Structure formats: structure tokens, C-alpha cells
Amino acid sequence: MARVDVLKITKMNDKLFLRFSGKLTLYDVPSCEEMITRLDFNQFKSIVIDLENLTYLDTIGSIFLNQLKKDIKKTKNSLNILVKNKDIIDTLQLTDKSYPPIKNKATQSALSIFAKFGKSSYELYKGFFSFIAFFGRLFSAKFFLLQSMKNIRYKEIAFEIKESGINALWIIALTNFLIGLVVAYQSAYQLKVYGANIFIVDMLGISIMRELAPLVTAIVIAGRSGSSFTAQIGAMKITQELDAMKTMGFDPCLFLVMPRIIALMVVLPLLIFVADMMGILGGMIVANIDLNISTTLFLERFNEVVSAKHFFLGLFKGPFFAFLIASIGIYRGFHVKNDTQSIGFSTTKSVVASIFAVIVCDAVFSIIFTKLGF
């Protein structure tokens, strides 16, 4: 916490005295800066910075004093600095040479704002074409695998199916079971008002199998497997394993990328199938308890009104969602910088971009299927 007596301000006619005493450290700078910002230097002809009673000065305090000196000189006022302590003088000289001046955000020019906007636009432009190039590599690798099936890494695909699918089974089942419970419970109250209890079967069957189960499953997988892909590839890049693979003549796209994408495209429809069953089960329990709809009646109504097309449309979305999640996660992994902190940033970007892409893809499918009458 800053001491209140580290800076004393004295005004004498057209002179301003800034007297520093004791120790000026990182913790004192904010309070001193606040006191000085209240002053109008243009009111004075002469300004004196008195450092004779200053006993200790750290780096931040020294940078603050150097910046204060430069700000006063800009006003064209007479400036006099009183200092005797050699250590204080040496510290001021060292930081004046070693550290750049502090830029006040409030005084940034419009040019710097346009420069930042231009830089961001260029990064977006560069990232877009980089992603397109990555997609091109993926499709060329797919054609290569189709031409020569012996190059498919079946062992790695099986491992990724286990990691991304089987190990995620319980969280997918639990999440969709709870979704079914919540949707049914919230709908039951409204349906009871109109005496339309049985229509909960229609609503649950269509909404869960067609939209909710595929979407929720894809979002969970994006947070689980998509982030995992980014972290794994990013760690391999930092430890230079990717460079070692290229040196030995192994294509990372064939050995690392394609097994993960193929595995996720295979396993996600199976996870959606499990999600359908668990979501319907959750809704069935609520319908039985809250609306007195027996299991037999629920299943009979379900068989009558919910056609198989809703089930297959939900499964159809799975490979597309999987491709987006895996490709975005791996792409972000390849663009990790050579420091561990960037893995966290890239993982966050990967999850956000994957979820956004899945939602956009689902919206596109919804429009197309509706227009086609499905």
C-alpha cells in the first residue's frame, strides 16, 4: 500500500515544488500519479522536482520519475531537479536508457487505432487462407489414403476411437439424460395446462433425436476431444516432435491428422445414437412421474408419431460435426507458438471456434432439411 507522505506538493506563486521523500517503489507510484494528474503544469513557470530526501528508488519508481520529467519538458516550463544521492542518479540514468517511455492509452492517436484495426484485419485474412490451405492438405491426404488403403493407420484410429468415443461415453450419456429430464420437466407444466400430456412424446422424440442430441453431443466432444487434439499437437510442436517426423520423412498429416479425423467421424454418430436413447429415457421418466404416462403408452405413441427420418437426420449430422471439431482442433494445434502459454490460448480458441462452427453447421442443415421437406 502506498504511503501518503512519499510526495508533498507545494505551490509558491508561479513555482511548483514536487518533494519526494523516503522510498519510492512500485506500491507508491499509483498514488503519486493520481496526485500529479490533478495538477495543471501550464499554470506554473517553474517546476522543481526535489529528490534530496529520497532514500530508495526501485525500477518502477525510476521509470515514473523519468516519464514525469519528460511530461514536464513538453510544457516548456523551467524544470529543475534536485538530487544528491548517487544511487538515485544511477538508477534514473539506467532506466532512462533501458526502458521505453510509458504510453498513455488516453492519448493514443487515431493512427494507432487504424493501425491496430489493419493488423487485426490482416491477421484475419491470413488466418482464413491458412485454414483453407489446411483443408486442402486434408483433402489431398484423404485422396491419397483412398488410393492406397495400406497407408491407413488402423491402430492409431482404433486408439483415437477409444479415447474420443468410448472414454466419452459416460459423460455423453449423463449429459443427454439430464437434457431429456430438463426438457420434459419444463414442457410438462405447459402441456398439463392444456390437457395435452401425450404430446410430450412428440416433442421429445423429434427435438431430441433431430436437434438436441446431435448438438449437445457435438458441443461436449468439442470441449473434450477438440481441446485434447489442440493440446496434443501443440505439445508435439513445442517439443519439436513434428520437426523430427518431417526430418525422418513422415507426413504429420497422414500420421497425426487423418487418424484423429477418421476416428471422430466414425465414433460421433455412435455417440449420437447413445445420446438419443438416454435423452428419450430421461424424458420418459419425467412423463411417467409427472404426467402419469406409462412406459408402454409412451413407447406406443413414440412408434406412431416419431418417424425414422428424424433419427437418421440426427445421425447424418454426426460426421460433419466431427470433421469440423477435429480439423479445427488440429489446425489450432499446428499454430501453437513455441511457448507453453500459447497452448492455453490455442485450446481456448479451438473450443470456441469448434462450438461456433457446429452451431452454424446445424443451422445450415436445419434450413436445408426444412426446405427439402424432411
TrEMBL record:
Keyword entries, A-Z: Membrane, Transmembrane, Transmembrane helix
Molecular-function annotations in GO: phospholipid transporter activity
Keyword flag Aminoacyl-tRNA synthetase: no
CC terms in the record's Gene Ontology section: ATP-binding cassette (ABC) transporter complex
Keyword Transmembrane helix: yes
Residues spanning the membrane: 124-145, 166-186, 198-222, 253-274, 280-299, 311-331, 351-370
InterPro entries: ABC_MlaE_roteobac, Permease_MalE, STAS_dom, STAS_dom_sf
Domain (STAS): residue spans on this chain: 5-95
Pfam families for the chain: MlaE, STAS
PANTHER family: ABC TRANSPORTER PERMEASE, ABC TRANSPORTER PERMEASE PROTEIN-RELATED
UniProt name for this protein: FIG00761799: membrane protein
Lineage: unclassified sequences, metagenomes, ecological metagenomes
